[in-house]
């Protein structure tokens, strides 16, 4: 039975498309023509800077939960989730109900930074979720609607509070696309930000990995800060991601996070935690800093806090609140619909223990995916935390790194091929990492066990096709995103009760 928009879906329940048992109608020639026309017009009209549209030539028209339906009638399992924005998946009933309630109430939709009942409810729910010891002394600044706006606001905040200007950031970081945020990201070319090594096991900058590699990184940080000839004056702040997302899904070790907290606290350097993608249960705790038990001085939040709508905030310790009125603003910082959707999302994640489910389900997915590395030499590493997962592709024919037992070179072309093969099988995934060699999974926290199996099966099939060089498709293979029939042909199809498509093998 289809789920109505006003119903509350139980945790892990399939959405309206996933739960349907009727056959999916085949796409008509008219639908295909409309689909292709929209894509052609987008290519002709939009800038060369567009990104997702290049790798994902689909035209979404309907969506619910994990599933997207395109204009051509094809359906996809969405493990991109708006780059992690959709904690509850597409069009979750509690989010739609919250939005509809504001619309029906006659409340103003645009109020700048004026107080409203909707804003008060959002702020109260947000503070309820903050790490212990942080909320009691916290202040919140509503800024522009994107995560990069929150990062810019945080930089301005710590510079005003400390009277210093420089910033510390880490290799591989991604904090946004505005000037200051981009300078702190790993791809910057003109830098006023001191860059520090971010710990990782697979490609450790010191060649040792593990706790030893993380400790060497911490000592490097101390040396840079304490050596009067390092060329790095005491900075206004340090910004870090508890899990680097765009950098390749690299979780920071908890012990290293605690060391960064100790190092910055001892030197009166505000620590900024970028929780834009890791927050709201994504990594297995409500906020990723909770894994290590640290309390940052500043947190920048966006993506999932708006319940799929644009919203960004900076949360910070009250003694940093030295701004004068108007020191930082933004016309759209009072988005009432986003605050209503965000409050509903935060409450649903908290009340239904979705962070804990993300931790359990993510561990299960990582265990299954690591078996791919045993089967396919092109899978170099599988890593992640909670439902933030990355699979790094390497060149299986290239010699390992000269360092003893070092990793093979990254293979971005293989990762791109896996992404294409996933799309052929109706699975949307993202790429990331230093060389775009990491296939990333960011499914909604409401993904069911059945859907998880389907995602893993399709990804395993895609990796197998790329590893075996079987990238061509015969006449009996489905087109992009098209479900296959039980007899293997094109057209009608549905998921079996165990989450597999007919004829599809299980993940090893």
From TrEMBL:
Species of origin: Streptomyces albiflavescens
Keyword GTP-binding among record annotations: no
Biased composition (Gly residues): 466-475
InterPro entries: Aminotrans_3, Aminotrans_3_PPA_site, Dat, PyrdxlP-dep_Trfase, PyrdxlP-dep_Trfase_major, PyrdxlP-dep_Trfase_small
Positions of the UniProt region annotated as Disordered: 466-508
Residues passing through the membrane, by range: none
The protein's Enzyme Commission number: 2.6.1.76
First-level EC class: transferase
Family in the record: Belongs to the class-III pyridoxal-phosphate-dependent aminotransferase family.
Keyword Metal-binding: no
Family matches, as PANTHER family: DIAMINOBUTYRATE--2-OXOGLUTARATE AMINOTRANSFERASE (PTHR43552:SF1)
Molecular function in Gene Ontology: diaminobutyrate-2-oxoglutarate transaminase activity; pyridoxal phosphate binding
Skewed-composition ranges (Basic and acidic residues): 479-508
UniProt entry keywords in alphabetical sequence: Aminotransferase, Pyridoxal phosphate, Transferase
Pathway terms, separated by semicolons: Amine and polyamine biosynthesis; ectoine biosynthesis; L-ectoine from L-aspartate 4-semialdehyde: step 1/3
Entry protein name: Diaminobutyrate--2-oxoglutarate transaminase
Cofactor(s) this protein cannot do without: pyridoxal 5'-phosphate
């Amino acid at each position: 039975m289809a789920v109505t928009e006003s119903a509350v879906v139980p945790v892990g329940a399939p959405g309206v498309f996933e739960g349907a048992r009727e056959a999916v109608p085949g796409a008509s020639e008219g639908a295909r023509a409309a689909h292709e026309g929209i894509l052609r017009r987008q290519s002709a009209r939009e800038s060369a800077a567009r990104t997702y549209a290049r790798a994902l030539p689909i035209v979404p028209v309907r969506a619910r939960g994990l599933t997207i339906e395109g204009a051509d009638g094809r359906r996809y399992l969405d493990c991109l989730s708006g780059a992690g924005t959709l904690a509850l998946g597409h069009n979750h009933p509690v989010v739609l109900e919250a939005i509809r309630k504001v619309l029906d109430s006659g409340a103003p939709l645009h109020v700048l930074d004026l107080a409203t009942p909707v804003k008060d409810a959002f702020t109260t729910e947000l503070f309820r979720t903050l790490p212990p010891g942080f909320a009691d002394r916290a202040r919140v600044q509503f800024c522009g609607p994107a995560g990069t706006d929150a990062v810019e606001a945080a930089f301005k905040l710590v510079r005003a509070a400390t009277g210093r200007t420089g910033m510390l950031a880490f290799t591989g970081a991604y904090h946004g696309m505005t000037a200051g945020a981009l300078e702190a990201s790993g791809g910057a070319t003109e830098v006023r930000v001191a860059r520090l090594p971010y710990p990782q096991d697979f490609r450790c900058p010191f060649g040792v990995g593990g706790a030893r590699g993380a400790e060497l990184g911490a000592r490097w940080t101390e040396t840079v800060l304490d050596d009067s000839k390092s060329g790095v004056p005491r900075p206004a702040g340090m910004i870090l991601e508890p899990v680097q997302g765009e950098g390749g899904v690299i979780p920071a070790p908890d012990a290293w996070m605690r060391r960064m907290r100790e190092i910055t606290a001892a030197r009166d350097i505000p620590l900024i935690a970028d929780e834009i993608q890791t927050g709201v249960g994504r990594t297995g705790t409500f906020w990723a800093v909770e894994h290590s038990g640290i309390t940052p001085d500043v947190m920048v939040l966006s993506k999932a806090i708006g319940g799929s709508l644009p919203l960004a905030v900076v949360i910070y310790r009250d003694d940093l609140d030295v701004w004068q009125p108007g020191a930082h603003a933004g016309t759209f910082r009072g988005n009432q619909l986003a605050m209503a959707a965000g409050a509903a999302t935060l409450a649903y994640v908290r009340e239904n223990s979705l962070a804990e489910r993300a931790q359990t389900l993510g561990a299960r997915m990582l265990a299954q995916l690591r078996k791919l590395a045993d089967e396919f030499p092109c899978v170099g590493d599988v890593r992640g935390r909670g439902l933030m997962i990355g699979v790094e592709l390497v060149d299986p024919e290239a010699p390992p790194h000269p360092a003893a037992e070092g990793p093979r070179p990254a293979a971005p072309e293989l990762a791109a091929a896996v992404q294409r093969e996933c799309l052929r099988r109706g699975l949307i995934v993202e790429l990331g990492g230093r060389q775009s060699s990491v296939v990333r999974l960011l499914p909604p926290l409401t993904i069911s066990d059945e859907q998880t199996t389907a995602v893993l099966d399709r990804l395993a099939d895609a990796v197998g096709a790329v590893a075996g060089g079987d990238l061509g498709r015969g006449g009996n293979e489905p087109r992009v995103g098209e479900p296959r029939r039980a007899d293997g042909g094109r057209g009608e199809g549905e998921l079996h009760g165990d989450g597999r498509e007919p004829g599809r093998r299980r993940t090893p």
